[in-house]
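INTERNAL AUDIT FORM
Audit reference: QA-55
Scope: verify that the stored structure record matches its stored sequence.
Auditor: D.O.
Record contents follow.
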Amino acid sequence: MNETPVLILAGPTAVGKTELSLQLAEHTSAEIVSADSRQVYRRLDIGTAKPTPEELARVRHHFIDELDLDEPFSAGRFAEAAWERIREIHARGRAAHVVGGSTLYLYALQHGLAKIPTVSAGTRATIEERLSCEGADALYRELQSVDPEAAATMDPTKTQRLVRALEVFHETGQPISSFQRQAVRPPFAFRTVVLTRDRHVLYDRINRRVDLMLEAGLLDEVAGLLEAGFEPSLNPLRTIGYQEPIRYLQGEISREEMVRLIKRNTRRYAKRQLTWFRRLSDVRWVDVSYVEDLNALLQ
């Protein structure tokens, strides 16, 4: 394992990771490895708060605009690819800074990959049907019963992981956590800085960012995706900032309700991210409002 820890700059959405990461990367001649499960996709620009062309020109980024919307990607694939990118960055004599808030991506990057058995289409269909009929809460309670270790690491609203854990259990009779404990270990050590702000300030930033996204043309972006033939059921579009505009454009909700839902759902997402990070013991918390010396983040 490489003994020099790789810096991870994490934190909730809208906390200010992008600008601070750019300043830090410029200060240290580093390259940025994005750990954002949506910014990796092309055409998802405004709704993901993707760095602008001008920001991307300041520092070399990885995992931004690398996939088409119909290309599958996972935390495991990200971790493997990110380890290789970090090796390449180090080979160029530069530092790599991982920046993002996708908690599962960050977990896979730091803790390794598990070889999970394949699951039959029938088992998967059964669990997905139960999700539709019974709801995520019922499935999460079942997972807490059969695999409390895995359940403790999950956001109950992220149904893709929930379905995956239950389908593995029903297919193999073994909890998915038993396979995860045999994960391939990462080749690097990491040290994590979690950025934070006063909750009211963070929520105000989220609300304001949603307003700016709409002013910047979020609805046009989403309408263009639908007109191009992309199905709303695609996993990258089943995310905050896209699912609500899709419902509005399809006549299901009013514009006022769309705005309310984007803001509410984003605030809830930020809260879930912070809850996840608080479970971690070996992290350093930094209030962005008081960062004056970039070198302090590197210590």
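Auditor finding: record pair retrieved intact. The chain has a mean pLDDT of 94.
Action required: none
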